[in-house]
């Protein structure tokens, strides 16, 4: 397997697994877990195979061209630091999947949970492997989206919905800041490629815009990593299932901001702005998070605030701007992921088996679940920084750097003291976690007897705790090579001397560690009882820092501002909105024309018109008359308006033919047929509007005035467009257009002679891809809106013609109700049913010839839709759906997937997305014919167009199946 393919699999495999998991049955818990664990394990194996390449600082890259002219390529970049993050994402992800298999209830839709988890895993992989700044931002926002789905998984819980909303709002807003910062950084560096940006350090720092770019990037990083003042969202995300908390808040989501800081550390570290903002935010977060964690009664709440504190520690180390500080940050990042994931899982086990996470109800659990208690105690000791555990080593490095490397920092004098105080707080809340939960009398307020979990539910905790011990005892042999590789990726091969030994002799950092341990224990002994009976369950003295309250006030203000704007600028109907938009466009056009000196209109050479010109003018006169008449009749005579609109469309179709554009004429004609039928089906269910209904005089005057204003606006816009078109067509072109290029290169580059189709599926295929995506969304939206639509009561009774004919049938002997209707439709039914295969054949013909002759995917899709329209018109919805299994949503999804795969296939040949190719092939009977890959894309267009059109047809046709209003009138059955 090539390195490039392996890099693609690292990102693509989780997304593929997410799609498969989403299709599993609701209660396929084990199957979804096995699938998810297999995906994570395969990625871990792939990373292990790539590990030997990074020991000397090598960087693996895969460049996939996207928009080279803008410097936007898909770049997968794997170096030592991204390998370390990827290993954490996948390694802990595999353990969380195993844990979630036993934690999640069989009553929940567990496959959906694993689908979200795998999608989030893929987004994190894409983020840490991104070698392009814009690509990194895209995956960054995907992590926000999928974390929202995971946090709000239990959507029946209001707290989960609120926590998910808050997390998405904060992190997505930060993502907008990150996008602005990355765009600025790329503009300064002259490239969006990460390696090029890192190499342009001097140019970036010399540009005054670098402070603005850094500020926006820090907003994104601080929001994602829950740094002060954006830390408030993380505790509220604890309403998520515990596997989500264990994964998102130990190794993935909250570490994404840290990852971005590490990536830009070589550029900005040591600058005054970096020292002040990054170091200051990290220090405040470290202290506020630790202080808040002390007073939490909820186990997950304590762990959430402790996570905030430890993230602040890591950010502070990066903010010091020293190489040893960055190495210590990388080391603590790994250690925090291991002990914090194990603690979250232990808290979930306690909640799962004891029925509560409230430490005021929990005590003496070591009697009931001794193995879990020992594991949690060791993990909490690692969090506190107890010797011979991994947390002690990285925290000692933190204290050493706070003492030795703080000379450059604005808080140099206070930093060792504040670092020791924060360490003491971590000892205090860790000791409270242990003592309040596992020691003391047996619990009496629980609704069940606590017990040990299933062994395989505990295995992930056991593995992580063993890692805490092994790394704490043998750091140089276990984590040392990975730490060095990551440090080389950030700082280069010339690393400063650092030691991962357990014992460094008696020195000041050791003294501060011992002091922190002793202070934490002493504080708990003195204040532990008072803390445990704290009724608020929140931090003392910092309630003014309640970011959640400020967030809610801000959101309330935004909603009120939106309501005020809607009241002032909003409109009650679409007509008013369109009037405002068109008037604005008209005014801007007049300003542009006047400001540009007006139009230089050429004087036409007038003469006697030829007969063809007279015929063409009459054609447009008829079409214009139909359009005006349709607008005049639209209010009270809708059927007549639809027919007249069809006349205007037919005039356009004939105009295309007249101007030698048969491809456009075919498409226009087919679209006119389908839209006319769909409009007629929709008009059937609109309430009646009768001229006999009188309105007050003042409302009638207002209505007439509005119509006259609309007529003036329409006339002005039409005249303006006519003048613009005349000016464009009668003056020389200012620039050379692309038309001639398309004409010359259509066959040589795309292998097609039908210029319109070649433009749609080759030259401008990306535009077409966006258009069919919108069409699919429109079809789904129409179906969703009409699924709950209830026709107006005036439309539910049978039409008068049906009622009269039914009465005639009942009065005649040997006649049943509805016989006349069935006999009337008999011949059309037979004709339309027999037309079904022939219309399909026509669609296939249009599709196959479309690359060289008039036709193409869109025309073929509309033609195939006509086949289904005819069947619904002839026999009704029930008859058709009893005999044909129509799944338009599957058609839409399949068409879009085929179009995506057709475009992505170019990547296998090192070409940009949607690059097409063609080759001549010798086929039996047909001989030597050109075969273009764009035909596959066109096939996706056909399938999606059929799906979207039939989706709207089904939504409208099903309205006829509504139960008619009970008015005593006999009900006429549908024709069979």
Give an overview of the whole structure.
By secondary structure, the chain is mostly helical. The strands form 2 sheets. The chain has a two-stranded antiparallel ribbon. Strands 3-4 form a two-stranded antiparallel ribbon. The chain is elongated.
User: What's the gyration radius in Å?
Assistant: 35 Å
Parts with pLDDT < 50 across at least 5 consecutive residues:
964-976
Give the N-to-C terminal Cα separation. 59 Å
In order across it, which strands form the biggest sheet? 1-2
Shape: elongated
Mean pLDDT across the residues is 84
Write a brief caption for the model.
With 976 residues, this protein is an all-alpha fold. The protein contains 37 helices and four strands.
Compile the SSE list and pairings:
Layout: H1 3-22, H2 29-50, E1 60-67, E2 72-78, H3 80-103, H4 110-128, H5 133-151, H6 158-189, H7 194-199, H8 201-206, H9 210-224, H10 233-236, H11 242-248, H12 253-268, H13 272-294, H14 299-319, H15 323-354, H16 370-384, H17 390-404, H18 415-438, H19 455-473, H20 475-478, H21 480-491, H22 508-532, H23 547-569, H24 574-595, H25 611-633, H26 638-658, H27 662-683, H28 697-729, H29 739-750, H30 755-763, H31 765-787, H32 800-811, H33 819-849, H34 857-875, H35 877-883, H36 888-904, E3 918-923, E4 927-932, H37 934-957
Helix pairs in contact: 1-2, 1-4, 2-3, 2-4, 3-4, 3-11, 3-15, 3-19, 3-21, 4-5, 5-6, 6-9, 9-12, 9-13, 11-15, 12-14, 13-14, 13-18, 14-15, 14-18, 15-16, 15-17, 15-19, 15-21, 16-18, 16-19, 17-18, 17-19, 17-22, 18-22, 24-28, 25-26, 26-27, 27-34, 27-37, 29-30, 30-31, 31-36, 31-37, 33-34, ...
């Amino acid at each position: 397997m090539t390195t490039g393919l392996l890099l693609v699999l690292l990102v693509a495999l989780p997304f593929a697994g997410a799609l498969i998991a989403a299709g599993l049955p609701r209660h396929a818990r084990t199957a979804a877990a096995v699938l998810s664990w297999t995906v994570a394990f395969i990625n871990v194996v792939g990373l292990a195979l790539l590990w030997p390449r990074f020991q000397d600082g090598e960087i693996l890259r895969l460049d996939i061209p996207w928009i080279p002219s803008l410097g936007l390529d898909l770049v997968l970049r794997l170096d030592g630091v991204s390998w370390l993050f990827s290993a954490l994402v996948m390694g802990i992800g595999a353990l969380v999947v195993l844990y979630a298999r036993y934690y999640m209830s069989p009553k929940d839709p567990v496959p959906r949970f694993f689908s979200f988890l795998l999608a989030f895993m893929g987004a994190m992989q894409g983020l840490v492997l991104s070698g392009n700044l814009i690509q990194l931002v895209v995956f960054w926002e995907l992590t926000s989206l999928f974390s929202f789905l995971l946090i709000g998984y239990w959507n029946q819980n209001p707290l989960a919905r609120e926590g998910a909303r808050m997390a998405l709002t904060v992190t997505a807003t930060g993502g907008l800041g990150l996008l602005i910062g990355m765009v600025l950084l790329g503009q300064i560096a002259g490239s969006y490629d990460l390696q090029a940006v890192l190499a342009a350090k001097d140019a970036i720092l010399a540009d005054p815009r670098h402070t603005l770019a850094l500020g926006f990037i820090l907003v994104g990083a601080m929001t994602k990593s829950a740094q002060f003042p954006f830390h408030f969202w993380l505790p509220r995300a604890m309403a998520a299932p515990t596997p989500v908390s264990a994964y998102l808040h130990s190794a993935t989501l909250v570490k994404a901001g840290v990852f971005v800081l590490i990536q830009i550390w070589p550029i900005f570290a040591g600058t005054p702005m970096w020292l002040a903002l990054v170091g200051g935010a990290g220090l405040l977060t470290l202290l506020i998070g630790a202080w808040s964690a002390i007073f939490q009664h909820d186990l997950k709440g304590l762990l959430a605030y402790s996570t905030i504190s430890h993230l602040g520690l890591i950010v502070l180390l990066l903010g010091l701007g020293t190489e040893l500080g960055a190495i210590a940050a990388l080391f603590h990042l790994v250690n925090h992921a291991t002990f914090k994931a194990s603690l979250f899982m232990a808290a979930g086990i306690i909640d799962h088996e004891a029925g509560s996470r409230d430490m005021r109800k929990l005590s003496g659990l070591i009697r009931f679940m001794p193995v879990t208690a020992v594991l949690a105690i060791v993990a909490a000791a690692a969090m506190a920084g107890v010797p011979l555990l991994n947390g002690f080593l990285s925290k000692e490095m933190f204290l050493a750097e706070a003492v030795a490397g703080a000379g450059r920092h604005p808080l140099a004098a206070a930093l060792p003291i504040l670092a020791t105080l924060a360490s003491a707080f971590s000892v205090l809340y860790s000791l409270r976690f242990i003592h309040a939960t596992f020691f003391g009398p047996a619990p009496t307020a629980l609704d069940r007897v606590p017990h040990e979990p299933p062994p395989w539910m505990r295995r992930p905790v056991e593995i992580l705790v063993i890692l805490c011990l092994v790394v704490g005892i043998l750091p140089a042999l276990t984590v040392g090579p990975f730490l060095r590789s990551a440090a080389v990726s950030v700082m280069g091969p010339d690393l400063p001397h650092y030691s991962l030994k357990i014992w460094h002799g008696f020195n000041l950092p050791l003294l501060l560690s011992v002091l922190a341990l002793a202070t934490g224990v002493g504080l708990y002994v003195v204040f532990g009882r008072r803390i445990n009976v704290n009724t608020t369950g929140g931090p003392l003295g910092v309630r003014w820092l309640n970011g959640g309250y400020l967030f809610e006030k801000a959101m309330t203000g935004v909603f009120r501002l939106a309501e005020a704007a809607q009241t002032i600028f909003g409109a009650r109907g679409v007509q008013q909105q369109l009037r405002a938009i068109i008037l604005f466009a008209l005014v801007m056009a007049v300003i542009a024309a006047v400001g540009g000196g007006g139009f230089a209109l050429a004087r036409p050479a007038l003469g006697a018109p030829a007969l063809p010109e007279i015929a063409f003018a009459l054609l447009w006169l008829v079409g214009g008359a139909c359009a005006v008449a349709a607008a005049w009749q639209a209010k009270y005579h809708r059927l007549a308006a639809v027919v007249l609109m069809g006349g205007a469309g037919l005039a356009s179709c004939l105009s295309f033919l007249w101007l030698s554009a048969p491809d456009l004429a075919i498409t226009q004609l087919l679209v006119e047929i389908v839209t006319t039928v769909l409009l007629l089906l929709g008009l059937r269910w609109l309430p009646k509007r009768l001229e006999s209904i009188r309105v007050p005089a003042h409302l009638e005057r207002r209505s007439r005035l509005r119509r006259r204003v609309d007529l003036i606006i329409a006339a002005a816009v039409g005249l303006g467009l006519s003048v613009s078109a005349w000016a464009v067509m009668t003056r020389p072109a200012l620039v050379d257009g692309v038309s001639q290029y398309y004409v010359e290169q259509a066959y040589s580059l795309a292998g097609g002679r039908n210029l319109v189709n070649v433009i749609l599926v080759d030259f401008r295929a990306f535009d077409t891809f966006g258009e069919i995506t919108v069409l699919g969304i429109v079809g789904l939206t129409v179906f969703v809106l009409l699924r709950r639509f209830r026709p107006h009561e005036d439309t539910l009774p049978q039409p008068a013609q049906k009622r009269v004919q039914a009465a005639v049938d009942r009065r005649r002997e040997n006649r049943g109700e509805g016989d006349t209707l069935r006999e009337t439709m008999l011949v059309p039914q037979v004709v339309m049913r027999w037309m079904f295969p022939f219309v399909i054949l026509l669609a296939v013909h249009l599709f196959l010839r479309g690359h060289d002759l008039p036709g193409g995917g869109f025309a073929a899709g509309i033609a195939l839709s006509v086949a289904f329209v005819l069947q619904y018109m002839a026999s009704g919805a029930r008859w058709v759906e009893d005999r044909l299994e129509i799944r338009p949503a599957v058609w839409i999804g399949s068409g879009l997937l085929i179009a995506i795969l057709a475009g992505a296939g170019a990547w296998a040949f090192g070409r940009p997305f949607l690059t097409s190719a063609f080759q001549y092939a010798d086929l039996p009977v047909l001989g030597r014919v050109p075969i273009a890959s764009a035909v596959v894309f066109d096939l996706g267009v056909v399938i999606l167009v059929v799906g979207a059109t039939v989706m709207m047809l089904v939504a409208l046709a099903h309205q006829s199946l509504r139960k008619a209003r009970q008015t005593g009138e006999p009900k006429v059955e549908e024709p069979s």
